[in-house]
Amino acid sequence: TVGRALDNAPPRVDATGASHGASRVRVAVPSRRSRPRARIASVRRGRTERKARRPIRSLQHNTVVRPRARRSARGDSRRTMATDDHMKVEHIGLPDGATSASLGDYLLENGRVVRDVVLGYTAYGELNASGDNAIVVGHSLTSNSNVTEWWGAMCGPGEQFALNTLEDFVICVNYLGSPYGSSAPTTADPDKADGGCYGADFPTPVSIRDNVRLQKMLLDSLGVKHLKMAIGGSMGSMLALEWAATFPDFVEELCLIAGCGRHTDWAIGIGEAQRFSIMADGKFKGGSYDVNDPPKAGLATSRMMAMLSYRAPASVDQKFERTVTMNSKTGAAAPMAKPSSHVDLNNVVAHANEKAQSLPYFAVESYLQYQGKKFIRRFDANCYIQLTYTLDSHDVARGRGEYRDVLRSLRHRVLVVGITSDVLYPFALQRELAREMPHSELYAIDSPHGHDAFLIEIASLNVAVTRWRNGEPATLGKLRWKAPEEETRASSEDVGELQAAVRELEEDLARAREMEG
Amino acid sequence: TVGRALDNAPPRVDATGASHGASRVRVAVPSRRSRPRARIASVRRGRTERKARRPIRSLQHNTVVRPRARRSARGDSRRTMATDDHMKVEHIGLPDGATSASLGDYLLENGRVVRDVVLGYTAYGELNASGDNAIVVGHSLTSNSNVTEWWGAMCGPGEQFALNTLEDFVICVNYLGSPYGSSAPTTADPDKADGGCYGADFPTPVSIRDNVRLQKMLLDSLGVKHLKMAIGGSMGSMLALEWAATFPDFVEELCLIAGCGRHTDWAIGIGEAQRFSIMADGKFKGGSYDVNDPPKAGLATSRMMAMLSYRAPASVDQKFERTVTMNSKTGAAAPMAKPSSHVDLNNVVAHANEKAQSLPYFAVESYLQYQGKKFIRRFDANCYIQLTYTLDSHDVARGRGEYRDVLRSLRHRVLVVGITSDVLYPFALQRELAREMPHSELYAIDSPHGHDAFLIEIASLNVAVTRWRNGEPATLGKLRWKAPEEETRASSEDVGELQAAVRELEEDLARAREMEG
């Protein structure tokens, strides 16, 4: 039987009548561990441990460990990040070093059941005997569970890492609906006799809260008794916040980076425009597309839009400076002609007029097209749509009362991190979180890069989170931004008031000195 | 013969060998003047006048004066503007009250010739005998030449109007490539024997500079000897700036609103993502689409994206507050189901899964879809693409030297207007213009609405421009923003410094008073 989940209670999941627990966890460990730093979770208790070490099942789409996948660089990845997608994988499916767990049936908030839920996850470090050294990391919209791929400098063995795998059991779980190892439109639908994938039939929408409850079930199975911290960037910060609101006593600390307490209308709109670009691609067919002939052009367009929302305008301008794309293959470098068609995007014909090829082919255009083409190799259109619905569902106060009251009720120690140039989730949203949550510190990444700074300015983010986890202020004195209480815009009012105060004081002082004289 | 145009010299245009001039102007005046305030230009000189009063030719696509077109409201249009497209027309073609002029052949900067160029324009007021009371107004990307439709409170008879039609001869010319009366992909291609439209064969790209040169030819024909001012918002400000750089002695003053001196990479990227959404629509066919079956879905998507770039995130959030779309037709208002298909957008099937209709249908999604559907009735996909290429071409320094040197060389009196919350052309761009142009004042529209504030905050903009035209500062003392010299971000530094100054002065004062005591 499947029951409707109540707030703060994990839903019943086992259609056979057994309660959820370790016995339901089936873990598939890839046969090759090609990532030296990424230790597979070794869970030290009873049946779970035995199960964990025995590969039981790997889903059709994630059987292969790909030794040729590029490795992410450690350290400050500013240079590569500034030019590239933060993700290096070139395929969907469970990433190297990840594990997949089967959790049985799950009743979504929307009232529909996902049968035989599988979650992909990656774990680092070891769970201690008391099960209370775990940290949940939330990944961003299009990332996978492989934390070291996109947050390398944040996670490793040693106290220089904010996520110290010598002490912390760090786990990142792939979202339901994401193509990186969890049940998703790209995985087999148990209701289809022919083994076909969910595709458009994936039960939608999955909420952030659904993901938290599923992750709780997984952690219970692994023997986790308490979370030292829930941390995440962008969509991951929504997960972390929802962890605290759904299981307040299970979570100790929160680190919420470049996100919000409820998805904003502007961001819903950005998502809708992106979804519409996919839906408008004739190949999409309402999601019932041929997986061998997917809506590549629409998905590439959505990625182009997304990339721009992840970057601050000034950052893009400084990067490209109106340069045009050069063709270096032709001996002396010469401007490249604007492509008149895109064969790799389902034969999109950009210009039937051949003369139009002499249009300037700006580097930023070439860059965006490259990013679009890169993205379609590692993502799926239905998954993208589902995950943006998950973002839109996010409202930590849904069913819990007034938004601010809910934030005020969360007594956790919280580090809220915002990026001063973020267009997608502007800094004011993080300032609001910090203002309302009673035990918070607001830390600003004063970066020109916009939203993606949480995947670029990793070295300084790592220092800040490490300091804060050690009980120190995240903000060093020399940094300019120190949790301003008011809108940036209001500070010009402050300037005016203060200037007036200075004038008055100067006059008072002059008068006092006159009298003195 | 057609020669290559040189900077600052109008190109030769007459393939028959005659020099350009009044004799080449053929003006079609619509037979009904349905807009009472919009006076058709009455040009008081020789043959031009006679020609101007005799309708000679009206193109196939602009023969109809549409009496049912909605009128724009005068006064502060904040309420309507905040909810709607700023344009009320629902068709392409020459707007009510506009005139079309034939200018002969024109050699574009790109080396191609547009044959038999037609420009649509709207004029208000009368040209004086000395021909020196003209003002050119530049319209924005998707506007037409009907200034009173989108800037009603700025333009009218009386000194309360920044554009005072009792004194000024105000003229706004539709851009080449725009569907509102000028030669464009939607008009007949003289090279096609069957009378077919240009479509994808329109010679591309047309630059802002091309538009200035064409407009100069038109003004010459009308007898304009000198421009009191070139003014415009967004794309229109690019036109105004290019007017000053191309014909520096012809222009007296400049008013540059919410634009930039060269199109930025982020904005090129936004344009490219929008173009790509059109090109990815299977109906587009490289621009050679059936005009009766155009790429509606792609064009609607591009509009959805554009609308978000025109609005500041906080403005959108405050407008919608995560509300869902209500269906008021069903007696008691109930949430509306998310549409699973869009018949009016070429049968886009959004969700093949019928259950997906229970997804929350956020008001912002409904709003964007409405805007998209509204836009496809009044615009054309090829025109949209051409005009975004025109934007991308914009660089006032192209062929003229270093960007800053070119700005510094412009000795005109300039009012630069920026919007503090503009995402598309951020305030820093206008600050840069004002900093580099030697006789400039920077005026800030301190609006939460983002880029579109230049079409929303018209009443205050009108006051500022009127003051400035009268030789006063545009900025009133009580307004908060007074041309800050530094980045907004730096003002928190200012606050710190000023707070320190206050503390020091307070201490000095205390000491002085102690000594006094």
TrEMBL record, chains A, B:
<feature type="compositionally biased region" description="Low complexity">
    <location>
        <begin position="21"/>
        <end position="31"/>
    </location>
</feature>
<dbReference type="InterPro" id="IPR029058">
    <property type="entry name" value="AB_hydrolase_fold"/>
</dbReference>
<keyword id="KW-0808">Transferase</keyword>
<dbReference type="GO" id="GO:0004414">
    <property type="term" value="F:homoserine O-acetyltransferase activity"/>
</dbReference>
<dbReference type="InterPro" id="IPR008220">
    <property type="entry name" value="HAT_MetX-like"/>
</dbReference>
<feature type="domain" description="AB hydrolase-1">
    <location>
        <begin position="135"/>
        <end position="455"/>
    </location>
</feature>
<dbReference type="InterPro" id="IPR000073">
    <property type="entry name" value="AB_hydrolase_1"/>
</dbReference>
<dbReference type="GO" id="GO:0009086">
    <property type="term" value="P:methionine biosynthetic process"/>
</dbReference>
<dbReference type="GO" id="GO:0009092">
    <property type="term" value="P:homoserine metabolic process"/>
</dbReference>
<dbReference type="Pfam" id="PF00561">
    <property type="entry name" value="Abhydrolase_1"/>
</dbReference>
<protein>
    <recommendedName>
        <fullName>AB hydrolase-1 domain-containing protein</fullName>
    </recommendedName>
</protein>
<feature type="region of interest" description="Disordered">
    <location>
        <begin position="1"/>
        <end position="52"/>
    </location>
</feature>
<feature type="compositionally biased region" description="Basic residues">
    <location>
        <begin position="32"/>
        <end position="52"/>
    </location>
</feature>
<comment type="similarity">
    <text>Belongs to the AB hydrolase superfamily. MetX family.</text>
</comment>
